[in-house]
From TrEMBL:
DNA-binding found in the keyword field: yes
Keyword field contains Nucleotide-binding: no
Record's protein name: MerR family transcriptional regulator
Domain of life: Bacteria
Residues annotated as domain HTH merR-type: 1-67
Keywords assigned by UniProt, alphabetized: DNA-binding
One Pfam family of this chain: Methyltransf_11
Molecular functions per Gene Ontology: DNA binding; DNA-binding transcription factor activity; S-adenosylmethionine-dependent methyltransferase activity
Length: 365
């Protein structure tokens, strides 16, 4: 027990307590009668300590590690998802601090309410709240998705967020790991399960179709998540992004001319071919209309001034991922080019387009 405590970075008293409350009980004894941990015991201890360090109470931890439907891999995927969410929260907090520092450097007043919104418990809710202000169902994109659903009656929406693109005429079950996003789902929405794509808590072939819309890039392990969708549903429909095409970073003027850091955001994103192969899908391009109602990252390709609006950018995860310095530089450069007319001159070919192919792809399996 002493050796295990040393390796785990906890006290022997902690291990005794876990034994007493039947949370982690050594399953063996040495010849001298001392408690001994098997490999399975150590694995369970690892899970307990990981959940504890993420802030879970002992009762919650006991329920999590005692869940008969999960194994070590499922726990690792769940822990990875929780850590990624915490990382995103930390990134958002850093961005909020930088904005306050910039405001103070300019001599601007920061009210107590703004301070609490930036650094207090409402920070993530405030950032997530921007999502509903600009992220809405775009009917023309929705029509493509719903057409791909075919005659499916039972639909699983993975990474469902606030519920955009969920068809109202089907029996929908949503999956969303973020409590902030789940809390913003409107009244009357489909029932929503707190789970990650990589470990869906459903039996094989439970649904006619599993769908995922503009969410795969947020998953810790996209290929595993896609395979999970394939496991629990007879068909799969996914709206995602294509990084296979050579020079894909240059398709969109914002990433080409102002935000080269975008390429690093998707550096580890799997190829479109790899994602399609994982579920046996075909890929179809989804052009973005010039007046797209859904404020996704590429939505304002013909309305560049929108990217100067803070509330518009806050609903796009890209800006948090690239960091405040890159964001401020990009916004400043774009503003200068709009004022001087350089943007209009450089992108004159966009003026007559009703829609643009900027890499959105629909995978249909």
């Amino acid at each position: 027990m002493g050796r295990v405590a040393e390796l785990a970075g906890v006290s022997v008293r902690t291990l005794h307590h876990y034994d007493e409350i039947r949370l982690v009980q050594p399953s063996a004894r040495t010849a001298a009668g001392y408690r001994a941990y098997s490999a399975g015991d150590v694995e369970r201890l690892r899970e307990v300590l990981a959940y504890r360090r993420l802030g879970f109470g002992l009762r919650e931890v006991a329920e999590l590690v005692g869940d008969p439907s999960t194994d070590a891999v499922a726990h690792l995927r769940r822990l990875r998802g929780l850590l990624l969410e915490r990382r995103d929260r930390a990134d958002a907090m850093v961005a909020a601090i930088d904005r306050e520092l910039e405001a103070r450097a300019k001599g601007l007043m920061v009210t107590p309410e703004e301070q609490l919104e930036m650094l207090g418990a409402r920070l993530y809710d405030a950032i997530g709240g921007a999502y509903t202000a600009t992220r809405r169902t775009e009917p023309r994109i929705a029509a493509r998705i719903w057409d791909a659903l075919g005659d499916a009656q039972t639909v699983l929406n993975v990474g469902a967020g606030t519920g955009s693109y969920e068809p109202a005429d089907r029996d929908v079950t949503a999956v969303e790991p973020s409590a902030v996003m789940r809390g913003q789902r409107p009244a009357g929405s489909a029932p929503c399960v707190a789970a990650a794509a990589e470990s869906l808590p459903f039996e094989d072939q439970s649904f006619d179709v599993a769908m995922a819309v503009s969410t795969v890039h947020h998953w810790g392990d996209p290929i595993t998540g896609l395979r999970e969708m394939r496991r629990v549903a007879r068909r799969v429909v996914v709206l995602t992004f294509d990084t296979d095409e050579p020079g894909w970073q240059d398709r969109f003027w914002l990433t080409r001319d102002y935000l080269p850091e975008f390429a690093a955001v998707l550096a580890e994103f799997p190829s479109l071919a790899g994602m399609a192969g994982a579920i046996g899908a075909r890929a179809e391009p989804v052009p973005i209309p010039w007046d797209c109602a859904d404020g996704l990252f590429e939505a304002y390709w013909r309305r560049p001034g929108a990217y100067l609006e803070d509330h518009v950018r806050r609903a796009m995860s890209v800006w948090t991922r690239v960091g405040p310095k890159a964001e401020q530089r990009a916004v400043r450069s774009l503003s200068d080019d709009l004022d001087s007319g350089r943007w209009a001159e450089r992108n004159s070919d966009l003026a007559g387009l009703d829609a643009a192919d900027l890499g959105l792809r629909l995978l249909i399996a």
